[in-house]
Prior knowledge:
Number of helices: 1
Strand content: over 45%
Number of strands: 8
Oligomer: single chain
Distance between the termini: 46 Å
Number of domains: 1
Protein name: DUF2147 domain-containing protein
Helix content: 10-25%
Largest sheet: 8 strands, antiparallel, barrel
Shape: globular
Order of helices and strands: HEEEEEEEE
Keywords: Signal
Organism: Thalassotalea euphylliae
Amino acid sequence: MKKFQLMLLIVGLLFQLPALSASSIAGIWQHADKLAVIEFDLDKGIGTVKSHQTHPQNEGQLVIRKITKASQQENLWLGEIYDASRGIFVAISIKKEQRKVFVYDASGKQILALKRGR
């Protein structure tokens, strides 16, 4: 009986994994307007430039930090993005909608759009 219960638990977890990963922003995201790729590492709470064809010197650069899951809303994360014009990190919200991610500044203005994949 215990083997049967264990098997049911394992099968249940396997069916939940795709749903959990589908609602995550972790992984590789293509910039919607540029030949650049950002990678989100939620274990570290960061987003880094994985590749950038126009500015290859930016590869590896930390662009988003302090990423945390917002508890009040599904598919919403909070964090800070580097504002190069001011030389500081500023508060942002990150929202996932299907296979796209949108980053908004503190006033709710969209400042970045990403799509899944390379």
